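Support request, please re-run this one:
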Amino acid sequence: MKACPVTMKILNNMTRNSRFLLLIVLFIVLLSNGCATRPIHPALQDAALPELIPTREFFANPATAFRYKVSPDGRKLAWLAVKKRRLTVHFRSLASDAVQVIDTHSKRSVFNFEWAQDSRRIMYVQDQEGDENYHIFISGTENPQAKPNDLTPFANIRAAIHRIIKNDPDHILIVHNERDKSIFDLYRLNINTGELQMVGENPGDVLAWITDEDGRLRARIRQTAPSFRHHLEVWQQATSDWRTMADWEFDDTFNVWGFTPDDRGLWVTSNRARDRIGVWRFDLATGQESFVYEDPNVDVAEILVSRLNKRLMAVLVNADFPKIHFFDEKVKQDAALFKDHHNFGLSLGSVDDQEAMATVTVYTDRSVENYLLDRVHRRKQLLNRHPLSRYKESLVEMKPISFKSRDGWTLHGYLLQPPGVTEKPLPMVLLVHGGPWARVGWGLDPLSQFLANRGYAVLYVNFRGSTGYGKSFMEAAVREFAGKMHTDLLDGVNWAVENNIADPNKICIFGGSYGGYAALVGMTFTPDIFACGVDIVGPSNLVSLLESVPEYWKLFMPHFYKYVGNPDNPEDRADMKKRSPLFYVDQVKSPLLIAQGGNDPRVKQQESEQMVAALRKAGKDVQYLLFPNDGHGIKHWKNRLQLFRSAEDFLAKHLGGRSNGFDYYELGALIF
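Re-run finished. Output below.
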């Protein structure tokens, strides 16, 4: 943390009790003096930049509320919001404004939950300090202060809710890996007693269990060696065995979204034997696929299937902007209630059992609104706006852009530019998404808005290997870590420089997970391009990364072996080392900020520790932030505040943007 460094050093060296009185005095002093800095980059010095939004508003906002869900009986509403400095489940009756809160008896935030079918209890998943070993807890709405019951009280396991059974309020289906840490068995769980009954024992190669609304196991997807092809197997009740009905390459897509109205088929999204992911009806008796829908340019992202009648309701597509193709006229009419927005996306959060009440999220690049929708009376009720929405006039447009890669691919991305700037070029941050098998989509992105508010142009590139643009675009990334995946990013930088957007001497590469790796690649492989780099939980050595992944990644490893390499193969191992930033620290020319969660199960602490040690040994400029009580996402509010306050000052120093300076929430972070 660079802002007010003397003050922070004193505070960090004091005990909690001795800090408290001093903090009261310092609080007043810091509010009056602060440590805010004006921009020093020439293009920003005289710019009419918008209101400087405090860092806490982006990353530690107590007004945060999201994931609204209506109960199965349509009489209650629950959502996630902040209480006692952490996220937990809030709920109320739709007939009352009185809000109650589930006391999880834990300091760890909750990030997802489900209503039990009886509409009286709420189940949520929670890990310990970011280790991603999720347990399933249950709490009653009648006594929300009582200590929740851990339904999966096993050591070192990862559990997940598989299905809420519609006609059985006493049971749910879950998966967990207590028997074998590398795979997941399917169980029927009695939420009253905690009794478990195995429904599907994983023979060691089942990737997914497919069940119906009544909780019956109907099919499964297996991955068989040595080819690692995937197979859809359907349970034959008459003969009590499995029958293979389809197969495909292990890195093709075949996602099941539900059963068709006649119960004889599946609604699937698939790119089996084709390039783009489309919607198909898969016949369980014959194995035949019937075409339903395909976008001409990009993959289908999601489909909505009615739990009430099993009909296909809508298809969601993420192109430059989100698009919806409707199959249900009533759903189309529901969506029309929100058309007072221009260029917006819609997301269905939940529906009750009768599909009369629903929660809907409406989003743009500068706002997110959550609504309760009464589908019978065609009424919408605003529940909440994203806390950043109140700064809407200071937020900026997220513009879709495209350009050609050096080998001819059309690359898509987004550009954000700070308003009030008349002189160009600007200092720029190249943000690299994680995954890498993911993509950046249009919408309100707090990180990019934060950076734009500080005066930076912000560029996102959906480089090859990003999802959403077809199989061939994905496979263009095979063995291209630190290769063409990186030159795609450089081509984005060149595009921004050639269009007088970016100052070529003031560009930062910034990312998390794979994006953190990309930042390290940028700083080691192409050190003359970037003025600085920010790596958040990024791997530094592809060999040690793949040799230390969680056991339950076993069935996903063939995908890594294809795209990255298999460290057990000597030739692959040598190639992976050549693509690993750890071995090129001598080429680093500019400062680095590296952040790591101590309990990260995906990118272990050693990935950052070994990189920092090598950089320091080579005499390079590196700032290191270790958060011992956090994981892969750096989710704890105190850690996020420290991380992005540090990044803010780091960028101000090396790119010349502005900084909000010491944020008084940092005082609270020191106390609690």
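The longest strand covers residues 502-512. The chain is about 20% helix and 30% strand.
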